[in-house]
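Appendix B. Raw example, untouched.
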Amino acid sequence: MLVGNVDIVQRDQITGWAADTEAPLTAIAVVVIVDGHEAGRVSADLFRQDLRDLGPYGDGRHGFTFMFSEPLSADLDHDLAVCFVTTGNPLARGQLKLQRAAPEATMGPAACPSRPSEQRVTTRMPCYVIHIGLPKTGTKYLQREFCRARSEMLADGICYPTEFWPELQIFAHHELLRDLSQIPNPKLEQVFSTLNASGHRKILLSCEGFIGVPRERLEYLRSLIRASEVRIAFFARRWSDWIPSQWQQTVKQGAVESLAEMYSKTLATAAGDYGINYNIILDKFSDVFGPNSIQVVPYSSLLDQNSDIFECFSRDVLGWRSDVRRKNELVHTSMGAPLTELIRCLNVLETRRQGSSGYHLFEAFNSMSTDHALQSDMQQIFDVMQGYMGQTTIDDDCYPLRGILTEINERYGKRVIGVGGSEIFQKRRRVVEFVRTDFLLDDTARSAVDRVYAAVRQRITTLSAKSAA
């Protein structure tokens, strides 16, 4: 993907950079056109430290300085275009008008001769778009698409930086959050100094972990990006959808609570739960980056309309219309009530044996998906579970959720983007299925659960031995 930027235009020279992200060691040729006529060509092969530090530009040898054979007349306006030779497309800020010099006052005897007139293409500070979640609002899908569309976004001046990726397949900027724990941090100061001067019009950062970053670290981040405009993209999900989804996620991570237990605790602690009381998160970011920085994306409303959240994010948050072809696949899929209950039971057994459970158990279980004996035991368990299905109703308008929603809408309803109205979501009542825990009174099911756990525990032991070797 060809990308580049014109930094400074003078009547005697033009400077900037150009590169091909798919061939980062190749020097790109650019052509300068003045008033419709080619003025000359130059190879973008000068070393620039800022480009090397950015990551996708190889050794950084992509700068150029084009010298006019004669300075352009100061008495005339000039239409300039700086384009890639191979495509004829202009670089970013590569089309402009160089205006004639203003009449000068009469110079006294002590006046100095004027320098050749120049027009600097102001390298504005980029706008930082910081996507902070919430969890369970399609974050992994968005980050995967940011990664896939990275070259196309970069060509339009939108950078999804790789400085904070230990590996490219890890979509999010987790390392940035880790580095923010050290204040001051010379590494971060150098990275953001480069990003601030990069010429990109927008820089996109994405990590759900931003939600838990303490205020003093956010204030340090604010100082790193200096006077740049900031937009905080927050996805709000209807609670009656979020609570069951979040319960499944916590079970994957080792939780032993049933859905009813989690729902009861959520209602009891709703005012202090950031997953419910969005004011906890939004107030913190509003205080640091300003209330006008907040952009609330109504995730549930988008799903109600069968909208693609990446297209909406691109259009409404980034101001970019994507024509990148995407794969229609889910990053995470719902486990469903029976499988979630089975994993919860395994977590209970693991906690009894080891003192705690965690994602390692689900990971080991998932790696055994083709084991025939395991599949046979699971089928027995699921068959028994069908006679123990229960239902609970999760109501967005129940007490104490009703008052919290009213307060959130009063504070941040005006910051909702992408759909009409000023509510973060439309209230619903949702009936959710779950498996009653008394299914374990069935001897067949209980014995099968024990066998599944024994097989998973053996798998964990084998994986640990291989890792140690």
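End of appendix B.
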